[in-house]
Amino acid sequence: MSRSCCKAIYFNVVAFGVVLTTLSLYVYYGSTVASCKTTISDVEKPVMEKPIVEKPIVLVWFTPFGITFDFNDCGKYFNITSCTLTYDKSLYNQSSAVIIFHKDIHGNLMNLPKEPRPPFQKWIWYHVESPTNTGKVPGLENLFNLTLNYRRDADITVRTELMTKNYISREDFVLPPKTKLLCWIVSNTVQATGTAIRERYYHELSQHIKVDIFGSGFTANRLPYEAYFSSIASCKFYLSFENSIHRDYITEKVNGPLKLNGPLAVGTVPVVLGPPRKNYEDFVPGDSLVHVNDFPDAKSLAEFLKRLDADDNAYRRYFQWREHFSAHRHPVTDNHKYLKAICTACDYSGRNRDYRVIPNLHKWYFG
Question: What is the pTM of this model?
Answer without folding.
Answer: 0.78
